Amino acid sequence: MLNAIEMILICLVAQAAVTDLAMRKIPNVLILSGLLLALLLHMLSGQPWAPASQWLAGTLAGFFLFLPLYLLRGMAAGDVKLMAMVGAFGGPADALQVAVLAYIIGGVMALLMLLCSGRRRDGWRNLVQIGKPLLLRSLGVPLQPVPLAPGTSIGGVPYGLAVALATMVVVALAHR
Question: Which of 68, 74, 103, 150 is most open to solvent, judged by the fewest CB atoms within 10 Å of its CB?
Fold first, then answer.
């Protein structure tokens, strides 16, 4: 049976997914409310170090697990903040599990969106344009990142949905 923290988390990520699908945005008020609620619940849990060991460590883990894809322009800031909120509820170990699963779900969603849109060639061009400077820099060639030209995006992936699905799977697997 789900505990209160898990039920609240599932409600929050479900709301984030619905909002992300409808408006392509995750409201900051939802994230902030979730972060504060998670902190309060950890403080009330009776474990003296839960706010530091679970809430803070989970928030930072969730944030930094999604930050690289945000920096590569692969997701929006709201998705990073949502993952930080998920980490605040579950702690760093759950944040890692949810992030890995969300990356997989998001990748599948991106491939399906690319295939269904008929813009495979544009997607490949964008991937090469973003990846080439990264590859050359890793080989020691000093380069500046090249931004995508306006209007060349093939569409954004609603990562709020991927995070919500991943969170639900991780919670469900914890109760099998």
Answer: 150
82's tokens: 């949502």
Tokens of 27: 């409201």
Query: Is pLDDT larger for residue 133 or for residue 71?
Result: 71
Residue 13 to residue 92: CA distance in whole angstroms: 17
- What's the average model confidence in pLDDT over 64-77? 88
CA dihedral 37, 38, 44, 50 (to 10 degrees): -160
Q: For position 29, what pLDDT does the model report?
A: 97
Tokens 């400077």 belong to which residue? Answer: 133
124 vs 12, more confident: 12
How far is the C-alpha of 69 from the C-alpha of 12, rounded, in Å?
Answer: 22
How large is the average pLDDT for residues 132-161? 71
This model's pTM is above 0.90: no
User: How far is Cα 31 from Cα 22, in angstroms, rounded to an integer?
Assistant: 17
Distance CA 94, CA 78 (A): 19
Torsion 148-149-150-155 (CA) sign: negative
